[in-house]
Amino acid sequence: VWHRIEQSSASEAKVLITGENGTGKELVAREIHRRGSRSERPFVELNCAAIPDTLLESELFGHEKGAFTSAVGRRKGKFELADGGTLFLDEIADMSLSAQAKVLRAVQEQRFERIGGEESLSVDVRLIAATNKNIPELISQGKFREDLFFRLNVVPIHVAPLRDRQDDLEKLITYFMRKYRKRPDDAPRPFTPEALDRLRRYRWPGNIRELKNFIERINIMTDEQEITAEMVDHFLGEKKQNQTPTDMQRYQGMRLAQAKADFERRLIEERLRECDFNISQTAESLGVYPSNLHGKIKKYGIMKEK
After folding, report:
1. Is 288 helix (H, G, I), strand (E, B) or coil?
2. Which end of the chain is more exposed for a tag (fewer CB within 10 A), N or C?
3. How many CA atoms lie within 13 A of 14 on its CB side?
4. CATH topology for 2-158?
5. Rounded distance between C-alpha atoms, residue 185 and residue 152, angstroms
6. What sign results for the dihedral spanned by CA atoms 68, 72, 75, 77?
C-alpha cells in the first residue's frame, strides 16, 4: 500500500481505493494528497453513502438560488470547493446511475453546471474514489457505469483488512500514538513486547478505525510511561476475541425476537463505541442508512458514554 501511495502521489492520475469498512481508505487518500503537488490546496471529501440521492447532486455540483424549494441561496458543491486540490468521493459505488453520469462528464471535461444554473464552470480537480463493494460485479448487474469505472481505476489501490497487515500494525500504532499524545512535545509512549503481542493476535473487526479509537482512548485515560499487556486487555476488551459457546447461555429461555433484539442492541452499542459515536461511519459499517440507525438508537435508548 505504501509503495502505491508513493507512486500515485508523484502523478495526477485518478485513484480507486478498495477495501473493507474501516481499513483506512480515507487515510490513504489523505496521504496521497499530502505527499502530492496539491498538498497546499483543498482536500474535500464526500461520503456518497451518507447522502440521499435527492441531495447528492446538489452536494457534488452545488445549486443556484431557487433551483428547488429549499434552495434559498447559491451554494457551491464539492467539485467547486475542491478546485485546485483533491476531491475524495468515498463509497462511490453507492451513487445512483444518474449521479454517476454527471460525475463522469465532470471528470472527462473538468466542467459542470450548478443545479438550476446555465453557466458552465471549469475546475481543476484531482479525483480519488473509494468503495467497499465489488465494482466489476455491480457493472455486470447494471448498477455501475463501466466507463466511469475505467476513468477512475487508473491507479487501483486495495487496502487489506488490518488482521492481514501485520507488517503495518506497528507503523500505524506509532502514527496514532504520535497523533493522539496529550502534548505536542511528548514522545510517543512505547508498548511492552507482551502488549504488542496482544495487539498482533487481536483480529481487529473494526479495522484501522478501531485501532485509532483504541489508541486515542488509551492516550487520554492513562499516564504510565509504557503501555502494558494488562492495559491492552483492559481497554481493548479481550472478551471480544475469546468468546466461547458458553456465551450462548445469555440467550437461554429467550424467544427468538427478544434474542435478536438483544444482539442487535449490543452490536450497535459496540460499533458506536468503535466509531466514537459517529453516526455516518457507524451506519456505513453496519450497512444501514443513518436515519435507520437513529431509529434503532432511539428504540434501544442508547446513550453516548461520558
Report:
1. coil
2. C
3. 19
4. Rossmann fold (3.40.50)
5. 41
6. negative
- Distance, in Å, from the CA atom of 23 to the CA atom of 207, rounded to the nearest integer, reads 5
Question: How much of the chain exceeds pLDDT 90, in percent?
Answer: 54
pLDDT at residue 242, as a whole number: 43
Contact 10, 36 (CB under 8 A): yes
- Scanning the chain, the segments in alpha helix (DSSP H) are 2-9, 25-35, 53-61, 78-81, 97-109, 135-140, 146-152, 166-179, 193-201, 207-221, 229-232, 256-274, 279-286, 290-300
Q: How far apart are CA 122 and CA 94, in angstroms?
A: 26
Q: Which CATH architecture has domain 245-300?
A: Orthogonal Bundle (1.10)
What are the domain boundaries of the chain?
A: 2-158, 162-240, 245-300
Q: What is the DSSP letter of 248?
A: G
Q: Which CATH architecture has domain 162-240?
A: Orthogonal Bundle (1.10)
Q: What angle do CA 37, 129, 267 make, to 5 degrees?
A: 125
Instruction: Give the whole-angstrom CA distance, residue 67 versus residue 77.
Output: 14
Looking at the DSSP assignment, which residues form a beta bridge with residue 86?
43, 126
The Cα–Cα gap between 19 and 22 comes to 8
The cell numbers describing 203, all together, are 483480529
Task: Write down the mean pLDDT value for the chain.
Answer: 89
pLDDT band at 252; cut points 50, 70, 90:
low
